[in-house]
């Protein structure tokens, strides 16, 4: 009886959270699935159209292919830089001899996290890439006037310019995650490696990377999900332009929902994005080994 | 209690206090919303009507225009007068995001301000949802505040409409369903702001025609300046409409198929959306088969060679003010910024785009047709469904409009605001907008724009003719074309598909029957017989 009472209390405690979770997370998802089968606009009529929205997006919408390509390119680039640069920096911090310096560098790389992403995008768009921004003014100062560009408005440079936002790509969060992974490598493994003559780059590639695989996997998943879902930076900097040179499906979904009032069509794009992210997450979990699995195999 | 505990708890308290302080709402400058409902010794009373208005940045009390001068308070003054007249009413001024997303969410939940300032084209797409109150019945009735003056000859004594100076533009803002949802006290017009000092140094003059304009642009570029500062929006909206008018002006007698007696007097051959839909879908106008349409974009591309490299630039004024750019295509709102800047360091003037000649295009009028008006209403007040919140939501919207006392008071405020003495207080607080109220004279710096506004109204407004998707795709692909991302044929391919989608959507939403226009088309066959290079008939 006492156990039942205790269980009941536990369920009662989590009930409000579950109710909120259902109301604000799961219900909208179900709603989006159902609305993706409708021609629907806010405040307007709701007409069932079956799979028309999906068919239109996948076979008729001229933005589909370029925006998917942009999304894959941006995500691929983000994966590459977020799996390498922060890891290298984390390793460099980790090998510093004094804890005091390690602490200082960790703080130095972590502090920029407090700057909101929107502010970062605006700084890049208006201070660095602008007509009279840092980049063009530097080129003018170097008498390279002909190299100046409307970096974000030129179709030839817009996507690359968007990719380069955040250079040198050493995010504090990733550095900290990798640093934690490196710190968790047992001393015995380090010593064994040293004894076997494995050091420097060889140790980094053969010992460190396999043993921070959990962290790499985490960052990979977060980057892929962020790359597929995120569009705020593009909205702020280019609104997907020029043309559709920097449009991604998420951004097109937003425009359809709130600007063009094609809520059903936007829901269909959202559902397709969900399916893609879900599939990639499953693949990631299924085929990428974690550090624990690596350790298990080694044992 | 040990000292360390005191320190710990003290720190926690201090952090909590700091957090609460930071979370507290900021103190705002006194505004209309903050004033007490009672005045001069009257007993405080709960207002019967609290009307919310989001007037936009041009009128917003407390805003310092361009960061120069004193904060605005004209609207506050008028609200004070209104509340003195109607003590049971409290007007609350709101500063809301000027984005469509805000409006859509607020209107769908019935919690929008009673009066909003929104582009009426954004309103048109939602009128069938009963989100906005049609104003025609009020505009066609006398303004009661004018009637009180007992002078039947004063504008407004017969119809409220009569109080508005620019009838063509004001009435032209009627939605495609024929109803007016927008009330504007002021106008805005575009023009080319130019650096007079620089022009004098280089021996240059405002050009008389388009050919001379292109020569001027080249001279300025040779002088090391950015000849013309303009954004992609100016290309897509203003420039597009002006060049279209130059190339199609002479065709209007043969292609303006819908003659609406109530509008033709002031819209003079305006191509309505259904006319464009018909011409495109049935007669191959505005396609690659239409040589004028093809040429239109080539003129824009040629002009682009003389403009700023970044068409997305959001601060072209800076380039003009620091004299990197010699000319800036902007609107009357810029006059205050330039007039008030004591450290500008150069004289400036305004001219309007010059006309095409036969040298520019074989399709230009033999006698050059002056460039038309593309500007229009500035502040655009719409009354939302919140204004009828005192009625039963289950009733038909028209009945709610008839029954609502709250709506009567909202309209009364707008009628009061449009009285010349009140409109003057608000509009002429600084030189930005041109008064649209008879009896309110524009401020002297706006004189060039007043002259421009006297011209003939544009043939059509392409950017706002169809849905917002059409405009978005057109803007994007035009930018691609102007920046050599696609060639003309690829751009036209996009534009044709865009027009196909937009006209299909338009025809189905409005349930139009374009066949009716075929008869009008046939009737004008003789007129078109003298015209050259029309798209080949199918």
Short structural description:
The complex is a heterodimer of chains A (299) and B (538). With 299 residues, chain A is an all-alpha fold.
Mean pLDDT of chain A: 88
CATH class of the largest domain in chain A: Mainly Alpha
Class computed from helices, strands and strand pairing of chain B: alpha/beta
Could you give the order of the helices and strands of chain A?
A: HEEHHHHHHHHHHHHHH
| Spans where pLDDT lies below 50 across 5 or more residues of chain A | none
Based on CA inertia axes, which overall geometry of chain B fits? globular
> Helicity of chain B, in percent?
40-55%
> Into how many domains do the coordinates of chain A divide?
2
The stretches of 5 or more residues of chain B where confidence is low (pLDDT under 50) are 29-43
Q: How many strands, what sense, and barrel or not for the largest sheet of chain B? A: 4 strands, mixed
CATH superfamily of the largest domain in chain A: MetI-like
| Morphology of chain A | globular
* Top CATH class of the largest domain in chain B: Alpha Beta
- Write down the overall mean pLDDT of chain B: 89
